[in-house]
Amino acid sequence: MALSMDSMTPLQNAGQMPAPKPLLRPIQNLDRPFRDPTAPPTRSHSLTPMWRVVVFLPAMIATLGLLAAFTGWFAMNGFSWFEGVVVGLIAFTFFWISLSVSTALVGVVTLLRPRPCGEMEKGPVKPLDVALLMPIYNEVTSDVFGNAAAMLAAVQNEETAHSFTLFMLSDTRDARTAEQELLAFQTLRASFPGKVYYRRRPENIDCKVGNLNEWIERYGGAYPAMLVLDADSLMSGSAIVALTDALARSPGAGLVQSFPKLIGAQTVFGRMLQFATRIHGAAPAEGLARWTDREGNYWGHNAIIRTAAFATCAGLPKLKARRGAAQLILSHDFVEAALLRRAGWSVHFLPHIEGSYEEAPATLIDFVLRDRRWCQGNLQHLRLLGTRGFHAASRFHLLCGVMSYLVSPAWLALLLVWALFGDGTETNAVRYFSGFDPQVSWPDANTGNGLVILGFVYAMLLAPKLMGAAIAHRTGIRMQDVGGTPQFIVSVVTEILLSIAYAPILMVQQSISVARRAVGFSETWSPQQRHGGTYSLAVMAKFHFFETLIGTLLVAGILLGLVTPWLSPIAASLFLAIPLSALGSVNLNAKSWSARQLSTPEQLTPQDIICHAQAERRRFAMTPSPSQPIAAE
Fold first, then answer.
1. Which candidate in 118, 151, 196, 448 could, as Cys together with 166 as Cys, close a disulfide (CB 3.0–4.6 Å)?
2. For residues 40 and 254, is the Cβ–Cβ distance under 8 A?
3. d(CA 210, CA 213)
């Protein structure tokens, strides 16, 4: 339950919040279905079943075809139970590849059509009072409040009947940072009187989930809709209004999710992520929106939610732990979307709304550290797949979150098996070092069948990226906005090569994350390094020890003729994990010749909201620092 007003210190409750208007938030029972009687009936698009068949049937056919091809390939020299397990792992991993390809294909078809995807109910737009919620936790104050100021100014300039109020919901623990936040809030409130509020909780109970829940229980009754942001979120006024219009005209919609694009990246690794999301991500996003229809997903930020529906239907219980205290559901967003849909509210994904942004991790290490926390949360979804009343699409979203991490250990197992048994000769690593003959005869990848099968797998891996690049002009991107056609081609090739180089490293790191969870290790949910950490050679060597070790063994095996040369790209990536990690932290903006590499429109021709946010960040950075530390509690 929410904390009482009397429990807040003068710093935290100095007249910065409006009068409370409580909203009940019952905790949901996962063992029985629930239907919200206030949820109006909604209808799926008439073509949604067809799109789902178009996405899933080819993925299953391609997987079965590859399964048959590998079975025949392995059976040329007999077929053992061990080889059956290997073929099963191949099919298990390949299904998710083929599903991404078919989803991207549907996205391409959607982008070539004159109407955007993600159609919703078309009713009148009723004015809404919307709360913009920005949870913050030990962030760079000038960045957060600079973005907030830019968004408030942007929505004020929009012609709309909706009303928007910003709430800065602080869970900051550091006393001096908290005082900086209060000073920044006072500056912001002076510019937008009555439109911005600030609250700092005395205790960081239940992390971001608890932060938002406290606001809902105390103030949610005054705002029919809430637009949830992250500390690094930035949205244009038109994007905020478009999301609000979508929710307002669709009485059955409980949540509308935008497609945040990455901005602000300066390093090689961050720019790679930014370019991939902007260029290669459009087609899969449009395809996902097409087949999910009203059974979409929630990514925790840059989404608008019907407040009363969320409070009534999405109260998260704690998970019963096998030992110790009950566990907080960490990756809460997927589950909250599933609970809304279970109760009868629709959940929509509208990727065609422009002007929704977030920032990317700057370095490989920063990305992995964040990914470990996400792994811990997503693997919890295994225990939630059996929740009563969930829609099949919601269960699939949860399963995708789980599989995004379990696929990596499966790929690593295949890599190790291929390294140990797959040189295509009578000599392999197991026989060479132990003299043991495991009766495994891995087929020769240099045969005609092998080349065709492996070539097909590699083509499927690259297909979504190539489709995204080919269809970029249909997403509003002009070649001059990405540096011209030659620069665009160079950037596409560079991103593909970098993604190939980093993929094996991420495979090993995600396998480590899964292993950490399997032995009960719990990650610390600490503030993210928004601008990237600076890591010494010793730190990188320690962090990438396992990748370097595996890569060294693979390279040695290839040189000794014990490991197939087909694994050379993977071996080189793992062997060079430390240099690649260092490369990822190189600042591309440091030199004029490199500043345009992997460029996106938001970098070369930034939208007004991005320029305004940068200016506001500089303004807040010049705010006088606190003269002396004050107590946080």
1. 196
2. no
3. 5
Tokens encoding 228:
């949830």
Label residue 569 by pLDDT band (50, 70, 90).
very high
pLDDT in tens, 503-556: 999 999 999 999 998 887 776 666 666 666 678 999 999 999 999 999 999 999
Residue that the structure tokens 């629709």 belong to? 346
What is the crossing angle of helices 568-575 and 577-584, to 10°? 70
CA distance 523 to 369: 9
Closest CA to 379 of 390, 387, 371: 371
What's the token pair of residue 627?
A: 């003269």
Alpha carbons 100 and 89: distance in angstroms, whole number: 18
Do 92 and 459 touch, CB atoms closer than 8 A?
no
188, 331, 400, 465 from 385: Cα distances, Å = 44, 14, 11, 31
Calculate the alpha carbon distances from 587 to 200, 268, 279, 534, 594 in Å.
Answer: 35, 7, 21, 12, 9
Amino acid symbol at 348: H
Strands 196-200 and 225-228: unpaired
pTM of the entire predicted model: 0.91
- Residue 526's Cβ-count burial label (10 Å; 0-12, 13-18, 19+) is exposed
Q: Which residues contact 392 (CB under 8 A, 6 or more apart)?
A: none
Give the pLDDT confidence of 152-183 residue by residue, as tens digits. Answer: 999 999 999 999 999 999 999 999 999 999 99
From 129, 127, 128, 133, select the one nearest 17 (Cα to Cα).
Answer: 133
DSSP 8-state symbol, 309: H
For position 204, what pLDDT does the model report? 87
**What is the token pair recorded at 363?**
């370095």
With a CB cutoff of 8 Å and minimum separation 6, the contacts of 597 are: 271, 490, 491, 494, 588
Quickly tell me which residue has 């049937």 as its tokens.
Answer: 57
CA gap 338, 400 in Å, rounded: 13
Q: CA-CA distance, 547 to 40, in Å (whole number)?
A: 53
Question: Tokens 């760079």 appear where?
Answer: 140
Q: Which residues contact 359 (CB under 8 A, 6 or more apart)?
A: 232, 262, 263, 264, 265, 530
pLDDT of 28-52, one tens digit each?
999 999 999 999 988 878 889 999 9
For residues 257 and 247, what is the distance between their CA atoms, to the nearest angstrom? 10
Instruction: Give the pairing of strands 234-235 and 225-228.
Output: unpaired
CA distance 518 to 463: 33
Question: Could you identify the residue written with the tokens 């439109």?
Answer: 195
Tell me the C-alpha distance between 284 and 25, whole Å. Answer: 35
Which amino acid is located at 294 in the chain?
Answer: R
Q: In one letter, which amino acid is 151? A: M
Strands (E) in 48-162, as ranges, are: 129-136
Give the residues across from 198 on adjacent strands. Answer: 168
| Contact by Cβ (8 Å): 209, 316 | yes
pLDDT of residue 91: 87
Report the C-alpha dihedral over residues 152, 154, 158, 164, rounded to 10 degrees.
Answer: -20
Output the CA torsion 577→139→353→313 (10° steps): 110
Residue 357 and residue 614: Cα distance in Å, rounded? 13
Q: How far is CA 132 from CA 182, 347, 439, in A?
A: 18, 19, 63
Q: Which sign does the torsion angle of CA 178, 183, 184, 190 carry?
A: positive
Tally of CB atoms within 10 A around 51: 21
Of 210, 167, 438, 398, give the one whose Cα is nearest residue 298: 398
Distance (Å, rounded) from C-alpha 393 to C-alpha 289?
12
